[in-house]
């Protein structure tokens, strides 16, 4: 069966520090991969998605970037964190257009 | 662009009472539709999905949802709510694009 791993679960980082969140999927090949950010009361905001290695689409211009160095690995990064980057970050995958997405357990990022 | 609306931000029900969470979508054709549940600090878990066919779909944990094309709705229901159902619920649609469009969520509180 397919599983998705996301780490770390919680992270406290100072303003201006770099960020790297990692997500890996097991049990499937060539998944579509997604990074979402969730703010209280505002639902899920799609940040990036990838349909293949090295292919990244950005939905919202911001202080963050994403990379997909391997088929089942998706990384969310920042060179310098801002206070506004605080939030709950979720990685997800699906197997095709419009199909159900499966989510990781999320990372709570607090920028101080 | 497609959109998903969940009109109720917060709903409180008594344990044992019935539940209906509302979801409306905007899309010209029939989209794929999903309901997810999220416990605090956790990722999203798929409750049920609708692609085509029978408009009443059954999901996990005793939930069901009914697709009504005439009302552009996909409401989630449960006949008898348990305290463990307290969580946030998200409706989502997929319509020919890779990523799903999510509503802003409805937080469910259950009174003992």
Short descriptors:
heterodimer, A: 112 residues, mainly beta, seven-stranded mixed β-sheet, four-stranded antiparallel β-sheet, 0% helix, globular, B: 112 residues, six-stranded mixed β-sheet, 12 strands
What is the percentage of strand-forming residues of chain A? Answer: over 45%
Classify the oligomer: heterodimer
| Mean pLDDT rating of chain A | 93
Spatial separation of the terminal alpha carbons of chain A? 38 Å
Task: Give helix and strand order of chain A, one letter per element, not per position.
Answer: EEEEEEEEEEE
Q: What is the β-strand count of chain B? A: 12
Number of helices of chain A: 0
Largest interface, per-chain counts?
Answer: A-B, 26 and 25 residues
Provide mean pLDDT of chain B, rounded: 93
Q: Encode the helix/strand succession of chain B as letters.
A: EEEEEEEEEEEE
| Largest sheet composition of chain B | 6 strands, mixed
The residue ranges of chain A in which pLDDT falls below 50 over 5 or more consecutive positions are none
End-to-end CA span of chain B: 41 Å
Radius of gyration of chain A: 13 Å
- By DSSP (H or I, 4+ residues per run), the number of helices of chain B equals 0
Principal-axes geometry of chain A comes out as: globular
Structural class of the helices, strands and pairings of chain B? mainly beta
User: Percent of residues of chain B in helical segments?
Assistant: under 10%
Percent of sequence in beta strands of chain B: over 45%
Q: Label the overall shape of chain B.
A: globular
Number of strands of chain A: 11
